[in-house]
Structures are given as C-alpha cells and as structure tokens.
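tmp note - Translation initiation factor 1A
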Amino acid sequence: MSDSDSRKDLRMPEGDEVFAVVTDMLGANRVKVRCMDGEERTARIPGRMQKRIWIREDDVVLVEPWDWQEEKGDIAWRYEKQDADQLRREGHIQ
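out:
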C-alpha cells in the first residue's frame, strides 16, 4: 500500500472555520483551544456532539469563531488521530 493509497480526503475548514488543538478541558461542555490563526479561544462542544464524540486534550478540531465574540467559538468537527497525523504531514497544522 503506497502513501497515496492511505491518503484520505479530509474535511477542510469552510467559511471562517480554523484548525485548533485542544489544550485544556474546562468542564460544562467547554474546552480551551489553540487555533492556527494564533488565537486562544474557549470553544463550546455543541449538543449534537456531546454524547456521540468524545473530545480530549491534544485532539485536533475545527473551530468556528463566533461573530460577536472573537475569543469564543463552537467546535464543528473532531479529527481522528490518523487524520490529524495526515494534516500535520501535509503542513496544515503544527
């Protein structure tokens, strides 16, 4: 299996979404994230993800910043570990 066979088409940021890495679990469905645009944000885990997708520290996620409060946002997507490794290899995240 060559490297090109193992490459998946991953969900990429749409609109104003940015890649982020979870740095801290705050409780009450909130996490601290370090976004790739240089911002530290408090991100909310939306209800549709709360019981289905477990988010842990060091997970790579997509965050959609709020229009009215730039330092906060919603988590739109969580990448699996192998998908996050692929994003790092391709240079999308550090």
